[in-house]
Amino acid sequence: KDIVKNKPVINISTCPVHVDHLVGTIVYFLTTKKAPPLDKHGRPKMYFGELIHDTCRRRGYFEEGMLLEDWNDPKQKNWCLLSKGCKGPNTYSDCAVRRWNDGLNFCIDCGAGCRGCAEPTFYAGMTPLYSDPTGVAEKLKEEAKLRAKKRKEVK
Which of 28, 60, 125, 146 is 20 to 30 A removed from 66 (C-alpha atoms)? Predict the structure, then answer.
């Protein structure tokens, strides 16, 4: 914004940039003659308007407090990856819906957890990658256990 004056700066993040984000933004501009609605970081809201966590297929496991603890336990194969450093609860992108490789896959489906590459604080602000030094995972796990207990009490 310091270099380009009087024109919107459009940031298209993720690593690598998703072709739909790039082409979709260009087509939007060509058809409307204006930039798409942007979030506070200058990213198109149509691609960066929701948290990955909110559309993740592992979200149900999170709600039940089932956070992966042991990579080698087959029972935990599809559990939430928050305790292993997943940045999905802090990352705005449509990765969980759009996916890469013609809609086949993305980080979490590979079992790696979200790295937060869509956020302006990536990489330095999202490390370490495979742990949760903030303790957020443990806190959320306890909250999920309480929710699950309340649901059982209602039944």
Answer: 125
pTM value is 0.81
Strand-pairing partners, residue 38, are 44
Among residues 50, 37, 47, 51, the alpha carbon closest in space to that of 8 is found at 37
- Residues written for the chain: 155
Task: HSE, CB side, 13 Å, CA atoms: give it for residue 37.
Answer: 5
What would the pLDDT profile of 45-83 be if each residue is shown by its tens digit?
A: 999 999 999 999 999 998 888 889 899 999 999 999 988
Residue 25 CB partners (closer than 8 Å, separation 6+): 10, 12, 36, 44, 47
Q: Answer for the pair 118, 92: CB distance below 8 angstroms, yes or no.
A: yes
Q: 3-state secondary structure string, the chain?
A: CCCCCCCCCCCCCCCCCCHHHHHHHHHHHHHHCCCCCECCCCCEHHHHCCEHHHHCCCHHHHHCCCECCCCCCHHHCCCECHHHCCCHHHCECCHHHHCECCCCECHHHHCCCCCCCCCCCCCHHHCCCCCCCCCHHHHHHHHHHHHHHHHHHHC
